[in-house]
Each structure stands twice: as structure tokens, then as C-alpha cells.
Amino acid sequence: MQRARWFLGLSLATMLLACAVSFNVQAGQVPSHGFRVLAPITSGNLTIFPVVASSQANTNMFLTLDEGLRTGEVVVSEYGSIQPLIRRRTPPRPRSGAEVNTLMLVNNSKRPLLLLAGEIVTGGKQDRVIAKDRIVPPESDPIDLGVFCVEPGRWTGHTEKFGAIGGIVQPNVRANAMARKDQQQVWDSVRSSNASAAQQVEVTAAAPPSSSSESTVVAGRALSELRTTTSYAQVTNNKAVQNEVDKIAKPLESRYRSVIKELRDQNAVGVVVAVNGEILWADIFASSDLLEKYWPKLVRSYAMEAMTEGVRAGKVTPSEAQEFVNERQGTHETAETEPGLFRHAEITGDDYRVFELTSLLPKTDFAVHIAKMHEDAAYSRLGPKQIPVR
């Protein structure tokens, strides 16, 4: 088994390095939008297509949520519990008490804060995910941060302090937050994901033992926890679930991180994601730096989706992935703008949605993050899956 895993890692590394070496041969002409899809990397039922750009932007000014929470420069609180702080702008309209879909955030740093839809914050009365991409100015007044709950059933405070677990919810949950914008749909997708994760752990636990009795006891405790929690964050942090996700994510996580460095000169900025031969998602950033910062969170969110979907036959070609990246014009667009700060556009196509965050800060005016989802594939699957033994 150990030798097989080593061989899989070596094979993936060889494939990735081949992508780097043969870039000019495989990719063809750069499309007018500047994004090109490389050869796929596959681990289990998860396939990742690296995306490179004809150019990239300087994004060093942006602070991430993880960085801000870690240093204490970014503070997240339930509505009503944050201390008054007025710097420049009009404060949010006063309301009383905590609310499910509202958190308050203050950026005390001297850098603009980048927030991605689907980033998890834990604590307070419920765990939440950020509802949409946005940029928060440096030394901000308290902002009303739109969120969705990913812990149905709890409304009691474990702790007043919020923190980031370093996670992003899987594409199915993320899609319901970003596209449907409906709390019940988010809860439904969380329940479905949690049930599927528990089912996968049960399948693994029922398999013939290949480890020590101690690890069997650990698995039993983990399964008991899965049966009693409604928290998406606790499920993803569950030891048995992490073991299952690691089987898919670790080969990609470590090898792709090293290859990103190899591809820096080629401007690696994003990925197209497919599960069981079906394209679900794309995340594309303005720079390789941003991709590297978010990659550990993203790859585990993709692997969580793959784990909860089970394994079915299917294959996606690079040309299909390239077409998915190319098609972004859509038939309808809505946009929200904070002058001098950001523009957030949602573009609707026949079977997809694109979410584009553009920075309007001085000397920027570029797309910081583009997320694209295949609507049918991303959020039409509700209910626990029938998961075969891997």
C-alpha cells in the first residue's frame, strides 16, 4: 500500500512536470482572453486542469482573511456585540441582537482585505460562510458582512470570538450560497454533504481491517461524532473525514504546489475542476501569488466534493475544460459597485454562472478573482449518495 501511494505521488509529479516542460506544445494558441488550460492532473475521481494566463497582476497589497484573523488585524463579531468604531464612513443601520445571515467585520490593517465566497468562519452562535467575494478597505469602519449559516440547528455561543479554520466549503455548498442565495438551500446542501461524508466513513469502517485496533477505535469515535453534529466545519475537521479527503487531496496538494513554482514563468493563476468526468467549477485569480495562498483551502474543498460524490465512470478532455474557461459572456449580467473599491458582477449563461470581482483601488482595475460554476453539475445534487468502496 505504501509503495502504491509513493508510485501514485511520483506519477502525478511526473505528469505535472510534463505539463511544465511541454506547455508550448500542448496548449496551442493563447485565446483572446489570455487563459489557457493545461493537461489534467487526476487523483481518484477528481481531475484538476491548471490554468495559465498571458499576464498577471501585482496583488501583494491584498490581505487574506486567514492572515488578518491570525494577526488579529481583522475582527469578526456577531451583530450587536462589536464595539462602536467610526473612522470615515456612515455606520451600518442599527439593529438589535445577533442575526443568522449577518456578521460584523472590521479591517484594522493598512492593507485592503480580500474575502472569497465560501470561506468559513467558525465561532459565535453558528458557523458561517461568506456569501460573495468582496474587498474591504484598509482601516475600515465596521461592515455588515453577508453570510450564510453552515451549522443548522445551533444558536448558542460556544465562544464570542470568530476564527478561520483555513477552509472553503465544497463547490455544491458554495454554489447554493453564491447563485441561489438562499439559506434553506445552503442548509440542504450542508445536510446532504454531511450525510454523504458519514456514509463514506461507514463504508470505509466496514471494509476488512488493514490497520491497528487503536485506529479502529479512533474511527469509531470519529463516526460517532459525525452522527451527532450538524456543523459542516466540524465534519470537515473530523479525523475520519480528513483521512478520506487526504486520499484525494494530498497527492494534488503537495505536488501541485511545487509545480506552481515551476510554472510561475508561465503565469499559473487557476484551475478547472471536474468530478467523475463532469466539469463543476473554475477558480481563476489575478496572480500566481493569490492562487498559491488559496490553493491549500481550495484543493481540500474540491476533494471534499469528490469524496462525497462517490466514484463513477467519466472523463473530461482538455478541450472541454478550455471551452468552459472561454465561455464567460453569458446572456444576463447584474453588478454591484463600491466606487473606488470593487465591482462584483454575476453573469448568467445557459448552463453556467460567472462571478467576477474587479478591484477599483488606485492603480489596479483588474479582475482579482473569477469563479465559474456549471449550474446543473454544481447544485442539482441533493441527498446522500450511494458510495461504493474505493
Report on this structure.
It is a single chain. The protein is an alpha+beta fold and 390 residues long. It contains eleven helices and 18 strands. It has helices at 2-21, 23-27, 65-71, 171-180, 183-206, 213-228, 232-237, 239-262, 288-309, 318-326, 375-379; strands spanning 35-37, 41-43, 46-53, 63-64, 74-78, 102-107, 113-115, 119-124, 128-130, 134-136, 143-149, 159-168, 268-275, 278-285, 332-338, 342-348, 352-359, 366-374. The two termini are 13 Å apart. 43% of the residues are buried. Mean pLDDT is 80; it is low at 1-32, 94-98 and 382-390.
Helices and strands, in order, run as: HHEEEEHEEEEEEEEHHHHHEEHHEEEEH
> Outline, from the CA principal axes?
globular
The average pLDDT is 80
For the largest beta-sheet, the strand count, sense and barrel status come to:
9 strands, antiparallel
Instruction: Write down the domain tally.
Output: 2
Fraction in helix? 25-40%
Class by SSE composition: alpha+beta
Q: How much beta, percentage-wise?
A: 25-35%
Measured between the Cα atoms of the first and last residue, the distance is: 13 Å
Radius of gyration: 21 Å
Ranges where pLDDT stays below 50 over 5 or more residues in a row are: 1-32, 94-98, 382-390
| H/I helix tally | 11
Secondary structure: number of strands: 18
